[in-house]
Amino acid sequence: MPMPEIAADTVERSPVQLRPRDLEAFNEDGAVCLRQVIDHDWIEYLQKAVETNLSNPSEYFTRFTRPGDLGGYVMDFWVRSHTPDFDEFLHGSNISQIAADCVGSAQARFVFDSWIAKYPGTLTRTPWHQDWGILGLSFAIWVPLDPTPEGASLEIVRGSHLWHKQFYEEKFQPEFDSAQTDISNPDGSSPEPMPDIDAKRDQYDIMRWTMDPGDCLIFNSLCIHGAYGNPYMQPVRRYISRWAAPDAVLAPSGKLIAERMRKQSGASFPIRQDALMPFEGDDFPLLPKRG
Q1: Composition bias, kind Polar residues: at what positions (predicted)?
Q2: Are 232 and 152 in contact (CB under 8 A)?
Q3: SS3 assignment, position 248
Q4: In order along the chain (291 residues), what is the average pLDDT of each group of 10 residues?
Q5: pLDDT value at residue 261
Q6: How many whole angstroms separate alpha carbon 250 and alpha carbon 186?
Q7: pLDDT in the model for residue 167
Q8: Is 82 left (phi over 0), alpha (psi -120 to 50) or beta?
């Protein structure tokens, strides 16, 4: 279905400013949920953008469910450069203001974006993991495109970004095995195995939220997070943008992640674990805070 043309300046931006208690939760807990801060015109725009992208996926499109599995769990990465409607949202909505507030700056570094869809009956879970690849403050902003009950929500281990530890994540699927065999931290130390959080849930403070379109969830990239499937009768789709502080640098860990970032950005940084390279070029723009 073709995307209707909507100029960015025809969609009203919702003014939003993170309150001190929002920033406190983000900094101390590692995550904060903001309610009804994204205009619903933009939500409809993103819903259609996902369907457009799904009909013509990028080379990074990934299906996590296997043939014969119930439901469907799919994801596409770096979609801004593949489907321009996502770029329109990034420049036209108030998302960059939210990001800039998180870093306490007049602008924030956009890193990359993706969307996730879990269709009714999906049993495949998103395993517990952290989002590596950046040295310095980095975070994700999740925008739900459908009502999301707690049972299909992202779960985050409160305060885990403050543990100052990196963990091997569980494998998402066999193609990610190569990323598990060569990972090291920029300082040369080795990550620890991911704790078995599901087996000892009572030992962790796990946060999750019921969310509606118009809400957004912001969380630090080093927070341990994961999600169940979708046992409900409606799809659960989310658009996710990744951001960083203006002074953050690339620190790719593992050949798979480094190669994907290199191919997308065209950057010439070497594929090695200790690469600490500045973000450069149009693929990683500094987007201004919008008043």
Answers
A1: 178-188
A2: yes
A3: coil
A4: 36 67 97 97 98 93 85 92 95 96 95 94 90 88 97 96 84 47 54 90 97 98 94 95 91 59 54 59 85 54
A5: 61
A6: 10
A7: 85
A8: alpha
Hey, which residues does 135 pair with through a beta bridge? 249
Q: How far apart are CA 125 and CA 230, in angstroms?
A: 8
What is the C-alpha R_g of the chain? 18
Tell me how far apart the alpha carbons of residues 211 and 128 are, in angstroms, rounded to a whole number: 20
Integer Cα distance of 186 and 147 in angstroms: 39
CB count, 10 Å around CB of 132? 22
Contact at 8 Å (CB) between 80 and 112? yes
- Owner of token pair 């949920």: 33
Domain residue spans of the chain = 18-264
- In 3D space, the residue among 112, 114, 79 whose CA is nearest the CA of residue 3 turns out to be 79
C-alpha span between 30 and 175 (Å, rounded): 29
Contact partners, residue 241, CB within 8 Å, separation at least 6:
90, 95, 99, 110, 112, 113, 140, 141, 143
Please state which CATH number belongs to domain 18-264.
Answer: 2.60.120.620
CA distance 178 to 173: 11
Q: Smallest Cα–Cα separation from 33: which of 223, 217, 221? A: 217
Burial of 255 (0-12, 13-18, 19+ CB in 10 A): middle
Q: What is the dihedral of CA 242, 239, 92, 110, to 10 degrees?
A: 10
Residues forming beta bridges with residue 77, ordered by sequence position: 114
pTM (global) more than 0.70: yes
Closest CA to 61 of 49, 48, 70, 74: 74
For residue 260, the model assigns a pLDDT of 62
